[in-house]
Structures are given as C-alpha cells and as structure tokens.
Amino acid sequence: MSSERAGTGRGKLLLFGEHAAVYGHPACGLSLDSTMRVRIREIVPSRWRLPELDDGNRGMLGAFLESAEPLFPKELFRPGEISVESTIPVGMGFGSSAAWCAAFARAILGGSTDREMVWEKAHRAEEFFHGTPSGIDTGLAILNGLYAFTPSPPRLPGARPLEGFPMHFVVGAVPREGSTRTLVGDLRRRIESKDPEAKRLVEELGALSRSAIEILATGDSARIGEIGKLADEAQTLLDRLGLSTAALDTMIGIGRKNGALGGKLSGAGGGGAFYLLFEDLAGADRAYRAIADAVRNRIDRGETVLFRYSR
Ligand code: MEV
C-alpha cells in the first residue's frame, strides 16, 4: 500500500524591493498563476527517490533533502518518491526555488493550511538555495495576490495585502549570468566591506519600494504612471549595482519604445525576469507582439520567455 502527500507553491513577480529586502527594506510583489506541485509517494523500502531528475539535479536535491530533514518533525519527514509538475520557468527569476520550498514544505506537512507554519519551514528550507533569503519569495509562493512585505531578517517578513489597481504587464526572462546566491552574496560582501555606493543604492531602492507601496495601497488607478516611473528609477539603480545585463537592457528598452510606462528587472537580476508596465490591456498586447517579433529567434531557441500578465 502506498500513501501520497502533495503540496503546491506559486511563482512570483517582484515589483519593487529586491536585494533591498535582504537588508530589511520593504518590498512588494505579485504571486503569479503559475505553480509548482510536489508529490511524495511513500515506497517500500522507505527511501528518497527522484526518478525524473538528471544526475546534477538529483545530487542537488539530495543535498537539499539532507539539509531540510532537521527542519521538520521526525514523524512527518517520511521519505518517498518525489515527482514535480511545474508551470513556473525554472531558474529564471520567477521564484521556482521558493515555490519548490513551499510545495515541499506543504507536502511534508501533509497539505497543512497553517500558512505561517508552512512559510516558516519554506523560508528555512530556502536558505539551502539562497543563503540569506529575506522571505519575500517564499511569501509570494504561499500567499496569493499583491503583497507588501516588511522584512526583519532572519525572521519572517510581515506581509500585508495591497489594494492596488488594474495593471497590465509584459513579463519575460532572459538567460541568467549569475545565481541568486552569488548575486546576493556579492552584494553582501560589498556592503559589509563598507562600499558606500552599494549601501546608498540599496537604501535608495528601499525608498523607491516604500513609495511604490504607498501608491499601491491607495488603490488610485490614476497613479499608475508614478509606478512606471518608480520602476524606471529602480532599474537605473539596479543597473548601477551591476545587476542588469545587456539582454535585460535590450528587452526593457524595446518595451519602453513600445509604450511601457516603465519597466525593470524582477528578482535577483544578472539576467532573469523583468516586467514592463502598461496602462491598458490593448497597449500591453501591442507591445507584447512587437517585443515577441523583435526577439522571435531567442524565444524559438528557448532562451527568452515572454508572456502577458494582468491583475
Ligand atoms: C530574489 O528573488 C529576491 C532577493 O531580494 C533575495 C531575497 O529577497 O531573498 C534578491
């Protein structure tokens, strides 16, 4: 007889505050519709099996399972055969590792609906991937909607739903040139070695994020242009921190030429995810087609992801 436990986690789009959140500044973002589902089927003899994975990923997740064991009550951390279904592009800045941690924690906890407990476990588990996560990615993997976060590392951030207003995005991702762990670690070293420029830029990113949260909390859709401007300003700062890449600049540039109110990278950077904000659906659709035409070859080769998203 075999028993099966399952859990899901959502993908995310960080709107403001990435990196700054690691230093306690506020951040905000959206949970996406894309999800990751982890199933654990108990087998005899009892052991972990990861049959769907190649050797590299099997090794990495094997190490994850070892590090995750002490986080959970012994009687719940029962091994089994793991299978994963995901509509989240993996390793591109849409929070696939946070979604994995959330889905795994939910599965181990037997589909628990205790959000705080799942978040706490997922947050600790994410340390394996990112070293010093702020908790915003796992928050968006577990919650559902537009949220403002007040990080207080190493504890879980506070999370507050934001009213927001209709926003239409073209969202995409380009190849990564660095992992979240490396990018966060490099910035931490600069800040700890008292690099005044890095410290100032992170503080300014935090201030932009605070302003965006204030605007989104009003629910006043007439202020959408201000969000676009803040996104552009944040992108300039992220670029000065060395977190943007030529490919990201190209995508954001094409979007701006095609009517975006603003746009920026989303997540750790070094390539990966970005978003462009539009006032209406028609504008976003037009820009989506123009951008897709401009980078058709890269999309066909699977190097670039592009989709439309509205909330
Ligand atoms: C990565 O999606 C977001 C970062 O701020 C890291 C974190 O908050 O844990 C770069």
Plain-language structure description:
By secondary structure, the chain is an alpha+beta fold. The chain is built from ten helices and nine strands. It has helices at residues 55-68, 96-108, 115-130, 136-142, 180-192, 196-218, 224-240, 246-257, 281-294, 296-300; strands at residues 4-16, 27-41, 81-86, 146-152, 155-161, 168-174, 262-265, 272-278, 305-310. The strands form two sheets. Strands 1, 2, 3, 4 and 5 form a five-stranded antiparallel sheet that branches. Strands 7-8-6-9 form a four-stranded antiparallel sheet. A hairpin with a 6-residue loop joins strand 7 and strand 8. Helix 2 (96-108) packs across helix 3 (115-130), helix 2 packs across helix 4 (136-142) and helix 6 (196-218) packs antiparallel against helix 7 (224-240). It is globular, with a radius of gyration of 19 Å. The termini are far apart. The relative contact order is 0.16. The structure holds (R)-mevalonate. (R)-mevalonate is lined by residues 14, 18-19, 21-22, 130, 133-134, 136-137, 180, 184, 267-268.
Beta-strand percentage range:
15-25%
Which ions, cofactors or small ligands are bound in this entry? (R)-mevalonate
Spatial shape: globular
Low-confidence stretches: none
Summarize the helix and strand pattern as letters.
EEHEHHHEEEHHHHEEHHE
Instruction: Provide the residue-averaged pLDDT.
Output: 95
Number of helices: 10
**Helix content range:** 40-55%
Q: How far apart lie the N and C ends? A: 44 Å
Please summarize the sheet with the most strands. 5 strands, antiparallel
Structural classification: alpha+beta
